Sequence to fold (620 residues):
Amino acid sequence: MPGPEGARVNPTHERGVRAARGHVRDASKPNHGAGLSTRSWDVRPPHLTADLEAEVTLECGWGRLIFGQTFASHEALVRTVADEEPGRRDICLYVREPHVLVAHAPQELFIDPSHTYRKWLHQHRAARDPVRGVVVRDLRSERDADAVNRIYTAAGMVVAPAEVLWANQRTSTFTYLVAEDADTGEIIGTVTGVDHRVAFNDPEDGTSLWCLAVDPQSPRPGVGRALVSTLLDRFKARGRAYLDLSVVHDNEPAIGLYEKLGFVRVPVFCVKRKNPINERLFSAAPAERLDDLNPYARLLADEALRRGISVEVLDAESGLMQLTHGGRSVQTRESLSELTSAVAMSKCDDKRLTNRLFVEAGLRVPRGAVATDGPQDEVLLEELGQLVVKPARGEQGQGITVGVHTVEELREAIRLARTYCPNVLLEECVTGRDLRIVVIGHQVVAAAIRRPATVVGTGRHTVRELIESTSRRRAAATSGESEIPLDAVTEKACADNGFAFDDVLPKGEELEVRRTANLHTGGTIHDVTEKLHPTLADAAVRASRKLDIPVVGLDMLVPDVSGEQYVFIEANERPGLANHEPQPTAQKFIDLLFPATRPLPRGWEPAGPSTDHRAADEEE
Fold:
């Protein structure tokens, strides 16, 4: 069987595939004595290597899998690993004497600090309690492959050309599974399986698991477990003996999942090539206090370092850094830099001024007024029916109350907002989806729908317990930047939807536990850049020009991202760029600061906005 387009497979691979087609072993009898994979110090037994395909590599798109047991010498293996392409991550595993291999090229190679776990498939039993609301299926198209790459990007993994993933799926060697949210149809997880018997006529009948990733924005628990369990089912049905996987030594949540599923440690090691992608694994941090940065600053620091830009952390707690390349030096605080003037920053900081400027530019803003504590406030409430009450200055959704209906609620909301700013805005409560558009250099770089924190009922746990468990998952996915507070605002949002903290939420029912979609209070963000209507993109660019600001996050409420209707809510002079995967926000930010540098090539790029403002810029 020839290799798929884009995949490099050993030319003698076809013989191994023919041999494997009729090979189904007794899965109840693990092949413990084979020893090629786990006894790396032993001499290769001739009876195990006689039919083994030679020097096998598999093209995965993000890099190659290099099977060390198919190489007769370290010299040949070093030459193969040295062929790694820029921007990719090759993995060499099942190496005979990996420490000796590294000694052949210590400046180029290192032993990956990961553990290998194995599950003997004769011990596997199909799950009796499938994960509710999650459907695990095969990857079916290049469109599915695009969704897989979006999840890879959100998980900080290397992406792969969609055509390579799809071509590989049509072979017997690869099995790509995706997890689909049964309610929304969105792909929220993925895993890759490799059949070693088909790949190189493995006498041990082994298989391996790669690239397990779950969308950190998904509220569904158990997605990873469902993917791994399904892959185990598939390979057991083929009569294979075991499933191996590699996991970084300090990834405690993943290790806990694998051990719970019955995986055990085995003495198998991976060797990788030293490159910018792997740098964290083989060298100390290139800047002091880098590990103390929050995810928003760390994303930018990592992108700068990949390009050879030096990073000096001036204050880790605030994200203040100094970036230097050649004779140019720029200070940044997350996405705020010296390129943003104090005047531009003040235009965003004061929401009253922001609204006046937007109206002057012909942009749409909600009706509203400044709170007076007099009868005018109650008249406005009666006229509009419900209000949004928020501090005139502030960020991260602090002090905002949405859906104020009564005079008593109005007074309480004003009191809360005044704890953050003495001036309070009363605005029309506009319904719609919460849209964030990131504009860098007066070009739309990313657009995303922000959704309020939501929990999914199990039929056994209270709303309070569900909030606590969901909050822990959000915190883990964002390095502690996103958590759902158990405060009066959350309690009121639950009550407005008919539930108290101590009520048990019915199985499968979703409950919004916050009224605002702020990420710091547990909200999630979902990329919609390619669906963005040109009118919305144009309004965002016009707003950035009116504010005269190089980097800005613009918040709108829209009925539909593919439609023309919108209302501006506010502008953020320091938008979080770490929440817009797979769009290249960090790359575009560093491009703005250091235009002479270039990022590493990527195997896949997401679709951009539906309009391109570069032509308009040139006309001006």
Observations:
- Confidence is low (pLDDT under 50) at residues 1-29, 611-620.
- The first strand starts at residue 57 and ends at 59.
- DSSP finds 20 helices and 27 strands in the chain.
- The longest helix spans residues 223-237.
